[in-house]
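pipeline: protein-struct stage 2 | run 1193 | RNA polymerase-binding protein RbpA
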Amino acid sequence: MATGGNAIRGTRVGAGPMGEQDHGFHADRVAVSYWDALGNETVRYFAAGIPDEEIPDTIDSPHSGLPAGRDKANPPAVAKTEPYKTHLAYVKERRTEEEADALLDDALKQLRERRGQD
């Protein structure tokens, strides 16, 4: 007698009495459409018995990675990204010595007031 593996002869992996109804695919579902700023539509399915406030208003669109909302006419705006700044650009934005001294004095004054010292 030739045997191989541990499967019972005549069976398939995954075969059994369970059908789709046993996996929950027969449950009533509601389709909700989401749109991103580029006009891509994404449809998500939720259980029909779920309250409307538990269905999210926004999701991340799998098409573009942008936020997508349920309102087709007014989708969420594209996030504004700032361009990369060089070190020199940050040096140019530094405060003057007078502004730095004023900020330090103000911070020390607030700290002393909190501690009860004056």
